[in-house]
């Protein structure tokens, strides 16, 4: 199995495991890049783009199985054409563009005439999803930056509560404090993070 297909399969076995069963002819026609750096680069980009592509497809294609099939087609095309991807362009936008073409073809196939959407409608929705993806990414970057600015004790508290999913009472027991005190501190931290995120988004124009 070519390394790029193998990496994606390992990263998203539920949605992309089908790649493992593809024929040798399919591999030959996709002309995949054959170096580890490119494989890793694509995999990291796809991991971020995949949920957005699936959300976009699912907003128009109600049948879950058909939506997943279209997502798989998008993945195959993205792999095959990755060497043509302009690195100065948003990868998410590029993938959503591929998804738009797949969706239009889906609605043009026999038996779906009554469900056909105009290309303008699909393109408009693609644009909306691109903007939404950009906003979410900007907020995620701002959140990471703001967490880094917190004192170590506050970061530790956040990690235990939200990353390890520890109950407030268990954190309080570990720290020898009352649960109400932990709850109040978490509330203050969340408020500080929200204020920090909003300030950063205003500074960077990411709202």
What's the Cα radius of gyration?
22 Å
The arrangement of helices and strands along the chain is: HHHHHHHHHH
Strand content: under 5%
Main sheet specs: none
Q: CA-to-CA gap between the ends?
A: 43 Å
Low-confidence stretches: 1-32
Structural class: mainly alpha
| Count of DSSP H/I helices | 10
Mean pLDDT: 75
Helix amount: over 70%
β-strand number: 0
Task: Tell me, briefly, the overall form.
Answer: elongated
List the helices and strands and how they pair.
Layout: H1 3-11, H2 13-16, H3 24-30, H4 36-60, H5 64-80, H6 91-108, H7 119-148, H8 152-163, H9 168-175, H10 179-204
State the gist of this model:
This protein is mainly α. The protein has helices at 3-11, 13-16, 24-30, 36-60, 64-80, 91-108, 119-148, 152-163, 168-175, 179-204.
Description:
The structure is a single chain. This protein is mainly α and 207 residues long. It is 75% helix and 0% strand. It has 10 helices and no strands. The two termini are 43 Å apart.
Quickly list its features.
mainly alpha; single chain; 207 residues
């Amino acid at each position: 199995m070519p390394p790029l297909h193998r990496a994606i399969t390992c990263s998203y076995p539920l949605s992309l495991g089908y790649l493992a069963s593809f024929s040798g002819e399919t591999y030959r026609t996709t002309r995949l890049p054959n170096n580890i750096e490119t494989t890793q680069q694509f995999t990291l980009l796809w991991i971020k783009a995949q949920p957005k592509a699936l959300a976009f497809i699912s907003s128009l294609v109600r049948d879950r199985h058909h939506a997943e099939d279209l997502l798989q087609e998008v993945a195959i095309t993205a792999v095959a054409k990755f060497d043509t991807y302009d690195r100065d362009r948003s990868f998410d936008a590029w993938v959503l563009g591929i998804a738009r073409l797949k969706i239009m073809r889906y609605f043009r196939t026999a038996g779906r005439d009554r469900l056909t959407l105009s290309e303008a409608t699909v393109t408009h929705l693609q644009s909306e999803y691109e903007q939404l993806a950009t906003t979410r990414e900007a907020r995620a970057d701002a959140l990471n930056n703001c967490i880094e600015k917190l004192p170590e004790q506050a970061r530790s508290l956040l990690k235990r509560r939200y990353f390890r999913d520890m109950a407030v009472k268990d954190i309080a027991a570990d720290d020898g404090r009352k649960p109400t005190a932990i709850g109040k501190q978490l509330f203050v931290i969340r408020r500080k993070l929200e204020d920090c995120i909003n300030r950063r988004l205003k500074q960077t124009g990411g709202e």
